[in-house]
Design a protein that fits this description.
The chain has seven helices and two strands; from the N terminus they run ααββααααα. The protein is mainly alpha-helical. It has a single domain, classed as Sufe protein. Chain: A. A two-stranded antiparallel ribbon has the order 1-2. A hairpin with a 2-residue loop joins strand 1 (56-63) and strand 2 (66-73). Helix 1 packs across helix 3 and helix 3 (76-89) packs parallel to helix 7 (116-139). The protein is globular, with a radius of gyration of 15 Å.
């Protein structure tokens, strides 16, 4: 079973290997480059996430037992943010998604180094993921 807290601890450990923020940004960009590409047919308006300045296509699937997240962006740093959220939440149980706040954002210093528009986009992605998890939980009752 996927543990979002353990995934966050691994992210924090990885980012701690890079002492300065230029290196951390480069690492974030590299993570984004490793995202599995979406099919062109998946890059449609219904998968575009509102609230992001760049284009973010977010595909959520699964059930209460495991939420699956696939996403991509046309912006390098945003793609890296997506990669982090996928690492934390994809494969997790819906209840774990709802119960686990993304503390890694503060611990790696990301909150202080994101522009307001990128921070809004990150929160929009997080809200969509949590909303989907809640829908999956509500659907099993």
């Amino acid at each position: 079973m996927h543990d979002p807290r353990a995934a966050q601890d691994a992210i924090v450990a990885d980012f701690n290997l890079f002492p300065d923020w230029m290196d951390r940004y480069q690492y974030l960009i590299d993570l984004g480059r490793k995202l599995a590409p979406l099919e062109e047919g998946e890059k449609v308006d219904e998968n575009l996430l509102a609230g992001c300045q760049s284009q973010v296509w977010l595909l959520l699937s699964g059930n209460a037992g495991a939420i699956e997240i696939r996403a991509n962006s046309d912006a390098a740093i945003v793609s890296g943010l997506i990669a982090l959220l996928i690492k934390v939440y994809s494969g997790a149980r819906a209840q774990d998604v709802l119960d686990t706040e993304p503390y890694f954002i503060e611990k790696i210093g990301l909150a202080a180094h994101l522009s307001p528009t990128r921070a809004n986009g990150l929160h929009a992605m997080l809200n969509s993921i949590k909303s989907f998890a809640k829908t999956m939980l509500d659907g099993q009752n």
